Amino acid sequence: MKMKVWANGINKVACLSGLGSYKKAINIFPEGQGKIGKEEHLLYYSSSLFCIVRLDSSAKKASSVVCEFEGNGIVMSFQKRGKTSGENDQGKRQMFEKQNNIFFLNGFAKCQQTEADCFRIVLSKSYVENLRKLYPGAMAPLVEAYQKGCDSMSEHSHLTTTLEMVQIIKTIENLYLRQDEGKEMLIEAKIRELLYIQIMQHLKTLNKKDLKIEKYRMQMQMACQYIEENIRELLSLHDIAMAVGVCDTILKIGFKYFYGKTVFEYFNEYRLNKACDFLQDASLSISDVAFLAGFKHSSHFSTSFKQKYKITPIEYRIKNIEMFPAIKVG
User: Which helix (H) or strand (E) holds 107?
Assistant: First the structure.
């Protein structure tokens, strides 16, 4: 993860890179020198698992401060005071005092604040993936929002920061300013607690229609697993619905709600992703790959493959020819 801070859109005052760059909290603008403006400061703490950024420009008549992030992961953002305007490849969002959300960082994001105080925790993609494997149920709402292509967990409106959240943030700030060995373990525990509270708060804000669908979460996960285990079967919507214990209508609505695509869009996408894996086996012909990926006819497979990847299976294999010692293209 890389972060840059700019004052007034011109003067770069900080350029920080990498999780694990700093083992203690640092004030980029120490008292009496290098400040962005009157009474402004940036505190930055980073470990191998996460980094914490607090940018305070809440003084009156403060300069405009821009914070740019580069990398992949999530940003747990808490607006303490003032307003922050955020921008990424999906558009622009504003966050106001006492609001919070979890934003998805996919390459680049920029935040601009004037007379504001914002606390952010950045978790790397690999760390989030590890949490998903450890706590699939708790992390499911976050994963589903990402799979839908949302720019944040709570897509339509930000969440309200509670007193419990404020107290945890204060504890985290006190911990990273200490010099104790092993404090990172305590900080990580508090970050996980804060992340869990944010996710649970998001679930409570879902409307009644959403809550009715929520009870079918497990069946939709079972549907995904059933599809993946039966890609060579000619499955119908009814077959999948019967296998997971719901009616056809619930399967259609629930699957679209949780995964942002239809059952058969997911089915076809999964088969083509598996086909890419099979194409890396030099001993398999294109016809073999088509069969293993669940296509009855290699011509149908080639057409579907080209529609998704804009090249034919043979072209895909040739493009990656250095990975194969001997290619069987027939």
Answer: strand 99-124
Q: Which residues pair with 53 in a beta bridge?
A: 44, 120
Where does the pLDDT of residue 17 fall: very low under 50, low under 70, confident under 90, or very high at 90 and above? very low
151 burial (CB, 10 Å; 0-12 / 13-18 / 19+) is buried
Of 32, 40, 52, 33, the residue nearest 7 (C-alpha): 40
SS3 content of the chain, % helix, strand, coil (to 5): 45, 25, 30
- Per the rule left: phi > 0, alpha: psi between -120 and 50, beta: everything else, 107 is left
Alpha carbons 225 and 214: distance in angstroms, whole number: 18
**Is the pLDDT confidence value at 81 over 50?**
yes
74 contacts 128 by C-beta, under 8 angstroms: yes
pLDDT in tens, 151-191: 899 877 889 999 999 999 999 988 877 777 778 899 999 99
| Burial (Cβ within 10 Å: 0-12, 13-18, ≥19) of residue 21 | middle
Residues 106, 70 share a domain: yes
Same domain (yes/no): 152, 50:
yes
CB atoms within 10 A of CB 14: 18
Q: What is the pTM of this model?
A: 0.60
Average pLDDT, the chain: 80
Residues 245-273: tens digit of each pLDDT: 988 888 998 898 888 889 999 999 999 99
Cα(249)–Cα(266) distance, integer angstroms: 17
- 88 CA to centre of own chain: 13
DSSP class per residue in 197-211? HHHHHHHHTS-HHHH
Reading the block at residue 66, the tokens are 């821009």
Do 53 and 186 reside in the same domain of the chain?
yes
Residue 316 token pair:
């895909």
* Angle between helices 136-147 and 183-204 in degrees, nearest 10: 60
Domain span at 318:
266-323
In a domain, 106, yes or no: yes
